[in-house]
Amino acid sequence: MWRGDPEGGRLEDFTVEVNEGEVVLDIIHRLQATQAGDLAVRWNCKAGKCGSCSAEINGRPRLLCMTRMSTFERADVVTVTPLRAFPVVRDLVTDVSYNYTKAREIPSFVPPAELAPGEYRMQQEDVERSQEFRKCIECFLCQDTCHVVRDHEENKQSFAGPRFLMRQAELDMHPLDAAEEQGLDRKTSAQEEHGLGYCNITKCCTEVCPEGIRITDNALIPMKERVADRKYDPLVWLGNKIRRR
Ligand code: SF4
Ligand code: F3S
Ligand code: FES
Q1: Which ligand has an atom closest to residue 223 CA?
Q2: Residue 55 CB less than 6 A away from ligand 3
Q3: pTM above 0.90, yes or no
Q4: Tag placement on the chain: N or C end, fewer CB within 10 Å?
Q5: ipTM of this predicted complex?
Q6: Which ligand 2 atom is at minimum distance from the Cα of 203?
């Protein structure tokens, strides 16, 4: 178990009883109750739905409440450390405010001016497409694992991370979003302000997502394609040239 604060820390060894059907969070609670009363851990639902209990187990970003102890062999040492991409507050608790800063930078859905609420109509296919992204529980495991920021603090300024590039992609493919009519270009903003170009589609984000959202294939790659289509579309190119004159 990693114990420490912003000044530094160390791994401490504990031996804890395990019962059938338990998850890593149960073991941490037993550890708090019996040997380390001051151990800091964040959690809420214990059902994989609140996204609070994110940490790293044997170096892999995971939810503590959804990782069964039966995943490990009897002789295994289970190493639990805080999310590596974010500053430590104490023990397993990290400061994830980077994510909230990025969330605030993404303009929300812009309702179409000519339709009143209740008059919106969409194809079922379009509803299902964004429904997948709406399953996000904001655990930030994808943000933690992405190599663009995992070991590169300096990239945080210009990279929103997979969770928020996915949000941009979701709104960009929303048939009723009227952002462009308001002069708000989601493709340019994803590419130029939120670092879509930094993503080299390693898919690590998709691999760790506890909701099984296909972040790379269904959000990031299509968004990259739309950005490239527009950049290399001869009509758009000609239009930009004429406008610049
Ligand atoms: Fe977590 Fe998946 Fe949402 Fe990323 S996209 S924050 S991994 S639920
Ligand atoms: Fe990072 Fe996911 Fe792209 S892990 S590099 S955002 S595919
Ligand atoms: Fe809510 Fe683990 S405690 S996701």
Answers
A1: 2
A2: no
A3: yes
A4: C
A5: 0.99
A6: 7
